[in-house]
């Protein structure tokens, strides 16, 4: 069983989406003590959350952990860390640290979630900086991109840590034997890229990882690599560019397919195929980015997530609780630093 | 009239694609002395190019400028610069420098094209580093992204120069009055990003540009900004990610639409709409990246460009010759450095 605590106040559509996601999981769910079952809690302002849970008819099945403060999406992470000690993220992270819950899921301010989680949970041994890992759809599979935005100006050493953390995640949580790890660069040749990337590539070749070398932005969506490592600035730009292109294409697809009668009829006939396409490229299907390298499980949901996407983020946390990611990572980091 | 010299050996499909593109332009074209007409030349190994032009029936209409050497796609730019003084790129750049031709178009090794062009043509006054500018399709318009990969580890000062160069390009070559310039970052707030980006944002606010602040990867495809400025590593990753997503979506669209009889029939009916969609997102439609900041016109075509895409790259050069970009840029850089 996994015990997942949800931030009741993070994201653009809180607490509505949070409550609906809880409702959905409970209506689909197994009974509380069955294997693979989930115990759910929500952390935040009881005066808002309890009536909402009541209205949704799930008040008795979701524990409310009180937290008086909320953190705005635009608030400075450093300020939130120092001044909002009773925020839902602070309280949630402490609950995970103290073993009352197995994982925290939040759609809130990413920087604050990372800063507070790092401060309260600390990092795993030998990890300097945790990273946000984002799953990306690819032809015949998926690719884990990290760091997706927690760290700007990552050093070579940080990139190596991300490589170990990402590889361990794909092994422990996704059951891969020997994940292919690539380094995001602007060409496959050794001479390409910044000094930081060149040094990282040379070191990665020596490590006990299935390192496939430099990869490019196009490789993210191909079956050539499973884990792509990069600085958080670069990773965040790549992710948001991806989101932008997908929206742009869907916008144009819609516009074109409603343009003429024959296009409209065609769309009607191809409806199921287009639906499957949409679900294949829908960011909601890939929502839930684990913060890797922390001494505790924290999963970030997209701030604009809808109910289905938020359910998926909770399921990412559930899977991580059920895996032995912590042990994998600690051992791999330990092996590496001993060599 | 513009006189455009084409590298006969650059790219994956040279000289085939080059010859076909020349053929296409000549068959569509105006007579040589008409306004807006193009005079075409090709630079490279005559023993290869002359027979190919003969076979295409355009030998008398395209001048061949002999160059004995070719540069491989994987060759180190520094080595190519030093050791291949008689390469098609070297000879082509010298022809432009000496005023025999107005512009050089090449689908060859990007790094070598940039290094050799910079060495031979030099930069415009006050420009430290030229940049590759890439046009991106956007909803109701297009966005110019620079630098798309010429420079890694750009300083704040370089980013400011890119901003001026990009803004001037959109004015001179695209006829925009007051292009909106954005700085690519991982959030719109001032506190986001690296120190380099933060300093650049503060300076851009003080400059005589229509600076709209930080933008994100998603903005590239929206009608919120016309010129997006970033370091070449970041820009290249963004571009290739964009290419990867578009291919991924088209792959899935094809697969889904050929999956069932009703989907196939629907596709048939919606054929024209899907064709228009494809042309809207086809990288070929946006081929031709000017190298900005050089004291001479050089345009880079995608190495994998097909004939239609290559024609477009030549047209980008043609338009730049016809514009007064050089004067715009020199004046804007001068105004800025005097302040």
Largest interface, with Cβ-Cβ < 8 Å?
A-B, 63 and 64 residues
CATH fold-level label of the largest domain in chain A: Isopropylmalate Dehydrogenase
What is the overall shape of chain A? globular
Which strand order do you get reading across the main beta sheet of chain A? 3-2-1-4-11-10-5-6-9-7-8
Compressed to H and E, one letter per element, the order of chain A equals EHEHEHHEHEEHEHEEHHHEEHH
CATH C-level of the largest domain in chain A? Alpha Beta
Percent of residues of chain A in helical segments?
40-55%
Task: Write the CATH architecture name of the largest domain in chain A.
Answer: 3-Layer(aba) Sandwich
Strand pairing plus helix content of chain A: what structural class?
alpha/beta
Specify the number of helices of chain A. 12
Q: State the assembly state of the protein chains.
A: homodimer
SS strand fraction of chain A: 15-25%
| Unreliable residue runs of chain A | none
Rg of Cα set of chain A? 21 Å
Give a written overview of the molecule.
The structure is a homodimer of 339-residue chains. The first copy, chain A, is an alpha/beta fold. Chain A is 46% helix and 17% strand. Chain A folds into two domains: 1-127 and 293-324, Isopropylmalate Dehydrogenase (3-Layer(aba) Sandwich), CATH 3.40.718.10; 132-285, 3-Layer(aba) Sandwich (Isopropylmalate Dehydrogenase), CATH 3.40.718.10. Chain A is built from twelve helices and eleven strands. Chain A has an eleven-stranded mixed sheet, with helices on both faces. The longest helix of chain A is centred in the C-terminal third of the chain and has 26 residues, at 232-257. The radius of gyration of chain A is 21 Å and the shape is globular. At the A-B interface, helix 8, helix 9 and helix 10 of A face helix 8, helix 9 and helix 10 of B.
């Amino acid at each position: 069983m996994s015990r997942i605590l949800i931030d009741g106040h993070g994201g653009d559509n809180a607490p509505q989406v949070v409550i609906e996601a809880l409702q959905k999981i409970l209506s689909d769910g197994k009974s509380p003590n069955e294997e693979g079952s989930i115990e759910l809690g929500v952390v935040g302002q009881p005066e808002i959350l309890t009536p909402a849970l009541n209205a949704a008819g799930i008040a008795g099945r979701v524990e409310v952990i009180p937290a008086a403060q909320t953190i705005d999406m635009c608030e400075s992470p450093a300020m939130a860390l120092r001044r909002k000690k009773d925020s839902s993220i602070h309280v949630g992270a402490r609950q995970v640290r103290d073993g009352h819950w197995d994982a925290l899921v939040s759609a809130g301010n990413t920087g604050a979630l990372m800063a507070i989680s790092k401060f309260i949970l600390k990092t795993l041994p030998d990890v300097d900086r945790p990273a946000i890992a984002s799953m990306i759809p690819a032809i015949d599979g998926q690719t884990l991109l990290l760091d997706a935005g927690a760290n700007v100006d990552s050093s070579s050493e940080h990139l190596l840590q991300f490589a170990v953390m990402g590889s361990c995640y794909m092994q422990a949580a996704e059951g891969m034997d020997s994940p292919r790890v690539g380094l995001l660069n602007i060409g496959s040749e050794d001479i390409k890229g910044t000094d930081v990337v060149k040094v990282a590539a040379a070191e990665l070749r020596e490590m006990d990882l299935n390192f496939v070398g430099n990869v490019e932005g196009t490789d993210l969506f191909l079956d050539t690599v499973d884990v792509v490592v990069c600085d958080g600035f670069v990773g965040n730009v790549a992710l948001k560019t991806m989101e932008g292109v997908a929206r742009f294409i869907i916008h144009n697809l819609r516009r074109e397919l409603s343009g003429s009668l024959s296009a409209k009829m065609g769309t009607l006939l191809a409806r199921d195929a287009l639906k499957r396409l949409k679900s294949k490229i829908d960011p909601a299907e890939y929502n839930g980015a684990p913060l890797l390298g922390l001494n505790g499980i924290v999963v970030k949901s997209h701030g604009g997530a809808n109910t289905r996407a938020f359910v998926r983020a909770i399921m990412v946390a559930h899977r991580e609780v059920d895996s032995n990611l912590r042990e994998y990572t600690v051992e791999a980091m330990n092996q590496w630093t001993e060599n």
